[in-house]
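S2.1 Query sequence (DNA uptake protein)
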Amino acid sequence: MSYPEAVKFKDHAAGAVLTLAAVCCGGWAVWPHLFPAPQDVQVARHELPSPTPRDVAPEYRHTASVAPLISGRVNVNTASRAQLEALPRIGPALAERLIAGRPYRSLADLDTVKGIGPKLLETLAPLVAF
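Output C-alpha cells follow.
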C-alpha cells in the first residue's frame, strides 16, 4: 500500500470505529426504554357498589281452594306450559313458541319470539327470570 492509500484506510477505519461506538452508546441509552425492568404488581382495593334491588315481583292472590301456578318470578327457560300461560297475555300458542325458542338469556331474546312486542315485554319484565 502506498502512503495516500494507507491514510484513506486509516480515516475510514477511524470513522467506522466512531460510528460503531456511537451506535453502542445509543443502544445503551435506548435499552431501558425497549426492555423496561419488571415492576411489582400493585393491587388497588375499591369498595364495590351495593347491588341494586330488582323489580319486585307482584304477589298473587290465592284462596284455600285455588293456589297460584306461579309465585315470584318465572324462569322462562324451565317453566312448564301451564306456568307460562299463567303469565298475563300469554296463551297456549305463545307458550308453545316460548318453549320452542329456548334458551333465553335476556328480555331482548324474548323479543325475537313472534307475538311478543314492546308492550308485552314491559308487562313481563318484573315477572320473568332467566
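The radius of gyration is 38 Å. The first helix runs from residue 3 to 34.
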